[in-house]
Specification:
Helix content is 50%, strand content 15%. It is of the alpha+beta class. It folds into 3 domains: 92 residues, no CATH class; 196 residues, Band 7 domain (Tetrahydropterin Synthase, Chain A, 2-Layer Sandwich), CATH 3.30.479; 58 residues, no CATH class. Strands 2-1-3-6 form a 4-stranded mixed sheet, covered by helices on one side. A hairpin with a 4-residue loop joins strand 4 and strand 5. Helix 3 crosses helix 4, helix 7 crosses helix 8 and helix 13 packs antiparallel against helix 15. The chain is flat, with a radius of gyration of 39 Å.
Length: 474
């Protein structure tokens, strides 16, 4: 009896029984009319009604299939019709919507076997598979699945943020052992615990932003979808046995950032962390953050020795390097440095990931070390302020010189505009054109016009005098 109930509950059988009962009832109506009516044979009418009914059913189904899903190609519309027919017959597969990498699905829908459909929003990607192998990687849009295909894993195309280390309000070096959160706070601190060159322990709160590598707008979505990188990112996560019930999340970029933080912090003493070296523009802690970012985002990065100093390709170019730094010509200065290959960037690229930014939000010290740093800052603030003032003065002179050169170029261009378009026969004619162009250029420049007193009047008199000089020569 239980077996019969299970058979009768099958969707396809239930639909066939329903259609059969409807046809039987309709035929019985025709038979009854034949006995009670005018004795006319209604068999042809009944068959015609049934045929027209089925034609209308499938015709309207084909029509409304145009609007069920956002598809444009004729082949895709036919796929929609096929799946609607399969749905009516009870042989359809799962209908799944994926939003921001999360699968939205009715309970039991993923258990269905048969041709199905998957709709991914603009920030989602997924890999499909069968029981034996991966089949394909799909991106934003509507995709039709075969009878044995199902989702292996999904991923979010948004930029993802990973925070490692203590929370901003944690006190990992001050919290008491009897505090109920002691173990949790300590575990968070241990994730980024590092040691300086002079043996001082420092913890950091590090934030890293990364995403599946792509170009915005690629793959028909503003977030960017590159099928090769998406496949690499998802497969890497599957290999690492990451939970696949939610969008894949790869912890490796964060672990790389922590390893690099420890590597670079070990090159500096505690008292150097907030100093500005003569061969740098920023404090050491900013240099560490910048070097971590470069290691994760560039193929080649500059080398630092065991004391945190940059290494030049040619030691003779040290003076040139310092001068370029003072003039804020960063790219030119970096071109003089010795560079090495970044294995971290290469690994991330193979995994289909790219790091967008890295930020060391906060540092945590032992209480006595913190007091020492505050005392050191109080003693050194004047020296640091003077150093910053000198740099500001250098920048001001640099921009002043640059502005003066740009002004001279603009003046020469405007003054020679008229003389370059006409042929002059005498020096007076040439000088007249130069004076006239200079006067017109000054009148068109409101900033210059504000600072002029009698200069325009003087130029006008010079121009009049030159015209008089030009008269007798003609």
């Amino acid at each position: 009896m239980e077996q019969e109930d299970g058979t009768l509950k099958k969707p396809l059988l239930k639909k066939l029984v329903g259609v059969g009962l409807f046809l039987f009832a309709y035929l019985m109506v025709g038979v009854v009319l034949g006995f009670t009516g005018d004795k006319t044979d209604h068999t042809f009418d009944i068959l015609a009604d049934l045929i027209l009914g089925f034609i209308a059913l499938f015709g309207w189904m084909a029509f409304f299939a145009q609007f069920v899903l956002p598809v444009a190609r004729l082949s895709d519309r036919w796929q929609v019709i096929e799946r609607l027919i399969a749905y009516i017959m009870g042989g359809h597969g799962p209908a799944i919507f994926i939003e921001n990498g999360f699968t939205r699905i009715k309970e039991g829908e993923d258990k269905k076997k048969g041709p199905g459909v998957i709709w991914l929003d603009s920030a989602s990607t997924a890999i499909l598979r069968t029981a034996g192998h991966f089949t394909r990687t799909i991106g934003p849009g509507v995709h039709f699945t075969g009878g044995h295909e199902y989702i292996a894993a999904t991923a979010d195309l948004h930029t993802l943020t990973q925070t490692i280390g203590p929370l901003d309000n944690d006190e990992p070096f001050k919290i008491q052992e009897n505090d109920p959160n002691y173990r949790i706070v300590k575990d968070r601190a241990n994730l980024t615990s590092a040691i300086t060159r002079d043996g001082i322990t420092v913890c950091a709160a590090i934030t890293i932003n990364f995403r599946v590598k792509s170009i915005p707008g690629e793959g028909g979505t503003r977030f960017g979808f590159n099928i090769r990188h998406a496949e690499a990112a998802i497969r890497e996560s599957i290999v690492r046995d990451i939970k696949l019930e939610q969008p894949v999340w790869n912890p490796l970029p964060g672990k790389m950032a922590v390893d690099l933080w420890r590597e670079y912090l070990a090159k500096f003493r505690l008292d150097e962390l907030f100093e500005i070296d003569e061969n740098r523009l920023d404090a050491t802690i900013s240099l560490i953050a910048e070097m971590i970012k470069k290691r994760l985002t560039r193929v080649r990065v500059e080398m630092l020795d065991e004391y945190g100093h940059v290494v030049l390709e040619n030691k003779k170019s040290e003076d040139n390097y310092r001068q370029l730094l003072k003039e804020r010509k960063i790219e030119a200065a970096e071109s003089l440095l010795k560079k090495v290959e970044s294995t971290e960037f290469i690994k991330l690229s193979e995994m289909g990931l790219e790091v967008k930014s890295i930020n060391i939000r906060k540092l945590f010290f032992m209480p006595d070390v913190e007091e020492q740093l505050i005392g050191q800052w109080k003693n050194d603030w004047l020296k640091n302020a003077q150093k910053e003032r000198e740099q500001v003065e250098i920048d001001r002179k640099l921009w002043e010189t640059t502005g003066k050169q740009a002004g001279l170029k603009d003046f020469a261009f405007n003054a020679s505009r008229e003389i370059s378009q006409k042929t002059t026969e005498t020096p007076a004619q040439a000088l007249k054109l130069l004076v006239h162009a200079t006067s017109r250029g000054a009148q068109k420049n409101p900033i210059l016009l504000k600072n002029l007193n009698n200069e325009l009047h003087d130029l006008s008199e010079i121009y009049s005098w030159l015209r008089k000089m030009e008269g007798p020569t003609q």
